[in-house]
Amino acid sequence: MSVKDAVAERFLEILRERNMKINELANRSGVTPSTAYSMFDRRRREVSITTIKKFCDGLDISLRDFFSDEIFDRLEQEIF
Which whole-number Å values give the CA distances from 20 to 16, 64, 76, in the listed order? Predict the structure, then answer.
């Protein structure tokens, strides 16, 4: 799993827990819905830390809490 996929999966997990839709996340985060949806598009490989921070702010969670999930512990090394 790539870092981008792990980030998207983590946000989807939080959205499911809170019974929220991607549009609501966009509105709460101050980003356009197209920016939010592009994060979850598997064809798009990159996501900015700024967007991650905005989503965390919209969900009222810290970056520390967001990234302190075991999904990030299982990521493979990017540099070989």
Answer: 6, 21, 30
